[in-house]
Specification:
Ver/Plancto_CHP, 7 helices
Length: about 140
């Protein structure tokens, strides 16, 4: 069996806090940040540096990607996968780093993911209120 697949299978067996979909979601959110949000397009950085995201940037990418993919159900879907806080996103990232499926810079810390936003409000719909005359 491929060592990457074996490492991932071992991870899922030993750390059952998060479903496979949670890990897949974080990896997709990273791609979303680079490809759609283009958070790393600053030409002042080298290629590897320019593709690096901070913990806060990745959390925001996860939030936006979840809203885009799942709309009003985003929080419910993430909760179903075991993701309840931005700290959980950090745990997922650092699990992926541990099995060499993601990389970190020397300045990255697991704590960078703590309390980036509050899940209870981050996925609430933003409605525009209409005045009585507009209805």
């Amino acid at each position: 069996m491929n060592t990457g697949i074996r490492a991932f299978a071992d991870l899922l067996e030993h750390d059952q806090r998060f479903k496979f979909e949670a890990y897949q979601f974080v990896r997709e959110s990273l791609s979303y940040a680079h490809d759609v949000l283009r958070v790393s397009d600053d030409p002042a950085f080298s290629d590897e540096e320019s593709r690096h995201l901070t913990g806060q940037q990745l959390c925001e990418a996860c939030r936006r990607y979840a809203l885009e993919q799942y709309g009003f159900l985003a929080k419910l879907v993430l909760n179903d996968w075991g993701i309840y806080t931005t700290s959980d996103l950090g745990e997922i990232v650092y699990n992926l780093i541990r099995i060499e499926q993601m990389r970190k810079s020397d300045s990255d810390r697991r704590e960078d993911f703590d309390d980036v936003f509050v899940f209870e409000t981050a996925f609430e719909p933003e409605f525009e209120s209409l005045s009585t005359g507009q209805v």
